[in-house]
Amino acid sequence: METRTGMIAGRVVQKCEMLIDRVEFIDLHFSExxxxxxxxxxxxxxxxxxxxxxxxDICALMRRSLDSSAQDDxxxxxxxxxxxxxxxxxxxxxxxANGLRxxxxxxxxxxxxxxxYASIARLTEALxxxxxxxLTWL
Length: 138
Description:
0% strand; 78% helix; mainly alpha; 138 residues
């Protein structure tokens, strides 16, 4: 029978695979065409949203695997920083990605597509780095 920690590790790996898949999609299709092509822009926003959600799920799973109960997305990132699993600068980028995800999903105050474009370009690299940090830690 598989242990609880082993089951969580398996789920973390699955979420990392999902995260990597979404980041690779973004890498493959990311261009300024996003700013003029609504279908491509919405697809990119959805892929980014799913990548960030996978990262948030990973943080919650990691926190649970370390015998703590998961909290909100930001607290989970802080916990992994405190445990020195995630470097502080990467943790800050994860929080920024979560904030952008919230803006994209809920369209708070509308979305400035140029700012979203620049932010996705910058934060996608942090998501890729995060998956590497987690897989190395496992």
